[in-house]
Fold these 3 entries.
Entry 1:
Amino acid sequence: MTDRMKVNGVLLLLLCLGSALSAVIATPQTCPANLEAKCNDASSDDWEGEFFPGIPKIKYEGPASKNPLSYKWYNAEEEILGKKMKDWFRFSVAFWHTFRGTGADPFGAPTKSWPWEDGTNSVAMAKRRMRAHFEFMNKLGVELWCFHDRDIAPDGKTIAEANANLDEVVAVAKKLQEGSKIKPLWGTSQLFMHSRYMHGAATSSEVGVYAYAAAQVKKAMEVTHYLGGENYVFWGGREGYQTLLNTDMEKELDHLARFLQAAVNYKKKIGFNGTLLIEPKPQEPTKHQYDWDAATAFAFLQKYGLVGEFKLNIECNHATLSGHSCHHELETARINGLLGNIDANTGDPQIGWDTDQFLTDIAEATLVMLSVVRNGGLAPGGFNFDAKLRRESTDVEDLFIAHISGMDTLARGLRNVAKLIEDGSLDELVRKRYSSFDSEIGALIEAGKADFETLEKKAMEWGEPSVASGKQELAEMIFQSAL
Ligand code: XUL
Ligand code: CO
């Protein structure tokens, strides 16, 4: 490395640090612009009129439509493979991305200036935001939503203050839900943002943090239950380590299991019948996250006797971060009876982190739907759009367009799966591939009754086996023809 390169490197580092700091320090100017808003009045959650004027209720117009604010493939009431599309999907809006995403990144300040935001993190703002969220869901025609405790209400200086803030906002959500079918697909608690959680929550080295996290989950479960939520998610954002040199991994995993068992006990105590879900992710923010992937989470559940109490929430971008395809993670969950929910998003093949983009790849969506159809659907789980607008997408209508596009893509995936099933040749290819096991000895093997002596005798009798083609290209051809 030349001296000049070194200087350039240092300058770049300073520049990066500078922009990261200014992003943290700058107060976002979110007060609007072009609507007659009751802005800068943090004491009031009043908002006269619509939050999304000019955006109609989104309708199905069919594939020929050129209207970006319409569904082209997702037709909620249409029956496909014996179920209404809306029941296959059970789409959900993720409150944190859609209503708390600001477009800020480590190098830059927020880019969104939603008209309803007043730049504060007050309870009044939280209530107004909740009303915007309900108008958004109603216009989109989505009946489920997901939230973290701290997305929907401001934190407090004490647990009691944070709980009181949450109660105020939850009361508004409850009221808005009244008379509608809207309810949470799942709730969760944010156990990764606050500095107290820097070593983890249930796996923190500090017992005070463990207890604090338990108090937070207890409350978040109560409000999820109160709002009629159907599931509760544990994403172990900082349940992992940065170095094994300072970490007692065995102790941390034991603590995590005790924590989850306490959550199971509390769920039963308060009569919450929702499914508990673990959301695997291999890393980010920690170097190593304990719920690395579906198989790792399954092994953990088995070791601690928690199978039967938990299912998995598979997120596609997390799958690719762990070096798997989303299809692989879905199938791993499915064949073990653990597929409970999908965080529908995707990463960017050129970027190695969790970009949380809306899925718009039809082939990928078809693979996802193959697993979902084989699973018989996801209910009481669903598809949560854990996905955000790009930093550069700053129009209010982009929030709608992104969701419509994600829903249409998955709807195309479902329609393609119906074609594949009707055609039958892919299933037949797979069936044929294993047909040698349809024999008497194959049945013995599958029943666990073929010992090595029997197999050796058979192998000697048969001699060198003939091995058929795997037909991969044919399988790919059949798959592609359905897209
Ligand atoms: C983070 C992530 C979370 C969880 C909920 O990568 O996916 O938003 O879904 O905590
Ligand atoms: Co997620």
Note: Residues 214 and 262 are 9 Å apart (CA to CA).
Entry 2:
Amino acid sequence: MTLQTRTNGTLRHLLTLEGMTRAQLEALLARAQKFVKPIGEPPVQSRSLDGITVANMFTEPSTRTRVSFELAAKRLGADVVNLEVQLSSRVKGESMLDTIYTLEACHVDVFVIRDAEAGVPGLVAEHVQPHVSVLSAGEAHLSHPTQGLLDALTILQAKKKFDGLKVAIVGDVKHSRVARSALHVLTTLGVGEIRIVAPRALMPEAGEFVGCERFTSLDGGIAGVDVVMMLRIQKERMATAQIPDADRYFAKFGLSAERLAKARPDAIVMHPQPMNRGIEIASDVADGPQSVIRDQVRNGVAVRMAVLEAVIEGRH
Ligand code: CP
């Protein structure tokens, strides 16, 4: 946390939501809400990042996070460079830090980093110049802080509160950085009950998700909840033998309309995407009236605008 915050208390890097205060999180959500516009209206634009350069460096695939960081930076007036890592000199053996130093020499002010290896955003944050910020766009299975913020904002918009809510996080919790960041942000913001629902093979270790009730049945796990947060089966983080059979998985853990009826009638359905339709979620639920999945995507741009603006504003 000390690495993340400047001595004046402002946010310098965003590497994790773990340890952030409720006031810090609420301030970011309030700032993000100002950037939210209904789909169909022109997006909010400003010049608050005029003269700033943002570099997106993704070594794992991404659609939403990469596009929304790029749009967020451009809508605030920043220059953006998207490093195609697989076409960069990294493939000739250049190290991550030499790549960072090279881009710093090109006046990059903010690095947005997604990496399959744990510790990479933190390593970069330890080596950049004092005026430079590092934002994690997803770190291994550990952390996806802007996803956690956009999920919290989506819940707040739908439910107008966090206190007393019951949230079920369902699916491949073991491999999910989304679930870990959701746990950190929702716990700090006052959500009363967080359940994790997964087959035994996809449950996290006993030392993780402390305080969450564990369910190995979807019907029991989502009974009476306000929020159903579905997760993708992360085949890329499993050995082939561990990957569940799609039909059997849907039969036991797939969210169908019939199953959703066990949650509260006004429950919302979330999914960070990409979705495996017909495996963890039925299409009529993903596209149905209780789904806020596209709101999550819209809020992703707003949250990333808020985080970019906050780390740059704090420099002054
Ligand atoms: N939710 C999420 O991180 O999506 P992408 O992998 O497409 O960025």
Note: The longest strand covers residues 133-139.
Entry 3:
Amino acid sequence: MRTTSTQPSTAAAAQPAGDGATWWRQAAVYQIYPRSFADTDGNEIGDLKGITSRVPYLKSLGIDAVWLSPFYPSALADGGYDVDDYRDVDPKIGTLADFDAMSAALHEAGLKLIVDIVPNHTSDRHEWFREALASPKGSPARDRYIFRDGAGSDGSLPPTDWEANFGGSAWQRVDDGQWYLHLFAPEQPDLNWNNREVCDDFLTTLRFWSDRGVDGFRVDVAHGLAKDLSDPLPTKAMLDESNDRHDGSNALWDRDDVHEIYAEWRKVFNEYDPPRTAVAEAWVHADRRARYASPDGLGQAFNFDLLEAEWSPDEFRTIITKNLAEARDSGASSTWVLSNHDVVRHATRYGLTSVAGDHGDPRERGKQWLLGGDDAPTLDGALGLRRARAATLLMLALPGSAYIYQGEELGLQEVGEIPDDARADPVFFRSRGAEKGRDGCRVPLPWTRDGRAFGFSDTGAHLPQPSWFGAYSVEAEESDLESTLALYRRALNLRHRLQTDETLNWVDDAPEVVHFTRPGGWRCVTNFGSEPITLPGGDVAVVSGPLRAGMLPPDTTAWLA
Ligand code: NOJ
């Protein structure tokens, strides 16, 4: 066995996990999608009091922090990522007083709180957008957004051929004939970040939540804010071409000047003790991710590479090595994600057969499975869950922070059987059903084996829960020592004790085995092969599935400590 080592950055080596200003570096962060977590007032939508009531559950998991997806007033055109007011709580899910009570309960339990911030676009019900619509062309109110005259002799064509992320044109026409830009749904008009009032207002919002005790921010579409909209506007083909260059020259995405915005934000974060943290949701080329994670900027950026990877030892090894090196260079720690509210759950992704139409992309495979039909991938749920458990245990042994999406600790599968008339995701509507969208990972959590809404609510659930949910409920899994919930609890609680500095040493075993050690004699071994393997010496502290005659079976991870 040969070992190779990653070098710790000086900052990382000096900082034990979980302390003061560096708590985030190796934190396990649990993502709550508030509307689907726990409903206490019977309106079928999860609420902040529901989260407060489940703080003991959150604490028992062994996580360090909670990240709340948007909870702001919203018409839910995009699940809350269409914000009416950045400094309030949606009355459907609570009040500011509920927020304070929830924040106090989390903090009392020793958990940090990260909130989602959505700066690329507001909702079309935001007071600024209403004012823009009521104001004339060229007015200061319109300048907070991106309005343009249309093309064609009478301006009846969109200004450009750009497509929105959820499908259709990226431009929407208003009553006086002008068009506004929306890179997502029409209900999400893009803000103009060249407008000083927009910049200042977000600084106020960051202070508003920081003053209320929020520990950090997850920044939505962090790579989209800065845009070069000088005339002539590029065509879609020109955008695509510059996108492939990854050099900051694209007019809409990942421009270098976006970091001027985050440098200002960092000054606000550093007004607090400990400084507020931030993590960028930036779908950029891996080579450019470090810019978002710079200590002078947001400080950390999501790395979605594992979420996009096949179940393959080579891919996992390459991704881990590359990301640890990148994180070291940027001064940040790495982030690891297998599931979130935008993708098919990993217990399902790992159980799908590959088909020609998925182009070797597991996320695409998930979408094809949701669509169904003769050529769709088929699902082996048991295989998917076995691999998901192994992948999670591997992820939790890595240096850096790990993001866990609500329900994955129960081993939940994606819900495929949502009738079209119950769907809520704009992806489904804007693509005219060509994509099913993201509702299947947003179905309200099952807390009890049976009963109305499986304990999510006394009345019902805003997305239909399938009958098999009961078997994955917290109640069912609490009493089962082999459950996925028990595995997450064991691993997360142990991780607290085991995480020290941010180094990892590779151990070269067979090609189908991913094996590394962490300081203090902690070792993680994953068998990606098809035959059981002999484990190295040491006590097995956690294992993602039962050992076979003392050997590590296929699709299984063990920690030895
Ligand atoms: C990324 C969020 O994760 C997703 O849910 C949302 O639809 C888009 N940003 C637009 O805000």
Note: The chain has two domains: 19-120+195-492, 127-181.
